[in-house]
Design a protein that fits this description.
The chain has 65 residues and is of the alpha+beta class. The chain has two helices and five strands; from the N terminus they run H-E-E-E-E-E-H. The protein has one domain: N-terminal domain of TfIIb, CATH 2.20.25.
Amino acid sequence: MIDKKLLSLLVCPVSKAPVEYDKDKQELICWASGLAYPVRDGIPVMLEGEARQLSQEEKDAHNES
């Protein structure tokens, strides 16, 4: 689990936009850059090289909600 105060301070290193925590996937999602950063052992890994690109399906599902 990510501390809510920490989450409010974190931004994507690529877009500088806020990130959202996905508890199920253990990732921090940045919709602006389309990247998902892993959270390992409760520690966010905010490195572009460690992030995965969001799929078009994930982006579409987010835009519909």
